[in-house]
Specification:
By secondary structure, the chain is mostly beta strands. 10% of the residues lie in helices and 36% in strands. It has a single domain, classed as SoxY domain (Immunoglobulin-like), CATH 2.60.40. The two termini are 34 Å apart.
């Protein structure tokens, strides 16, 4: 049975200002003492996030309650999810993250697969970077992507199994606090020319070999609304990928609801062993209701 649609919009408050949507940090109801009570996106991007790990945990709590209420979340040795990220970001706007999923112990391996994964950056204006829905028929072992970080923060990955159990892994990441306001890598005119173009590729070629990984690369500015145009110095309106769906022979592999916490030109890589020939398809939707899709064929033996 497919997982229910998960709507990100209630998870962070929205302020309609100047004709565009600006995302306020989820912790704004109880901000740190050095944070303005009515901060603009630009103010937030200049603030620099958490000072300590305890600060980041405090920012996480309101979101945790909205997402999961008082449900138990297992960490440490008992966790079935492991997040890898650098302890210090080389580029605040392009921080690699790798999420590994572990099978359940004993007889529960097939009976309780991971069905959903959350990727969270505590201090970001849109802290939930993505909610990823997986398929039971093709269990996923690893998912990688890249995120922006807006200050010292925990990056968290959470997994929910079919039975409703929750697991979490987190990594403390130091950085300069400019991930959401960092200038785009290329100008907006170039982005418009390539907007929505996608590429699907198998890391070992289109071969039916074990240990394959599938990579999806999307050409998109993923603008945050907090970046300044380097010529006009005006803020670039937010414009980002909101949804991604990847299928193989019409069967769901991965579905994601995303925000601008994901980096410019979002890309995803995940484990995928096809075992047979077929058609890979990826579809993308963004915050301005643009859509695009790409297909590629995997050839079987003979």
């Amino acid at each position: 049975m497919p997982c229910p649609h998960f709507n990100l919009s209630p998870l962070f408050p929205l302020l309609l200002a100047g004709g565009c949507l600006a995302l306020l940090p989820v912790q704004a109801a109880d901000p740190p003492t050095d944070t303005p009570p009515n901060q603009s996106p630009a103010d937030f991007s200049a603030w620099g996030g958490a000072n300590t790990e305890a600060d980041s945990d405090a920012m996480w709590q309101p979101l945790r309650e909205k997402l999961f209420g008082n449900r138990t979340i297992s960490e440490g040795a008992d966790s079935r999810i492991n997040l890898e990220a650098p302890t210090r970001a080389e580029n605040d706007a392009l921080v690699p993250v790798s999420i590994r999923l572990q099978p359940a112990a004993g007889s529960d391996t097939a009976a309780d697969p991971v069905r959903r994964v959350w990727l969270v950056v505590d201090v970001n204006p849109a802290p939930v970077g993505g909610v990823f829905t997986l398929t039971e028929k093709r269990p996923m072992e690893q998912l990688t992507t890249q995120v922006r970080v807006n200050g010292y923060t925990y990056i968290r990955a959470l997994a929910e199994t079919q039975s409703g159990r929750l697991y979490m892994s987190k990594q403390w990441v130091k950085n300069t606090g400019a991930g959401c306001s960092a200038p785009p890598g290329i100008d907006q005119a170039q982005h418009k020319k390539r907007l929505g173009k996608m590429r699907l590729r198998m890391t070992q070629g289109d071969e039916l070999s074990p240990g394959q990984r599938l990579q999806l690369i999307i050409s998109h500015p993923n603008n945050t609304g907090m970046q300044k145009d380097q010529l006009s110095t005006l803020l670039i309106p937010e414009h980002y990928v909101t949804g991604v769906r990847v299928t193989f022979n019409e069967e769901l592999l991965l579905e994601a609801e995303t925000t601008f916490t994901l980096s410019e030109n979002p890309n995803f890589s995940f484990s995928f062993d096809p075992h047979e020939s077929g058609v890979l398809r990826a579809e993308m939707t963004d915050s301005q209701h643009n859509t695009s899709r790409v297909e590629t064929v995997i050839q079987g033996p003979g």
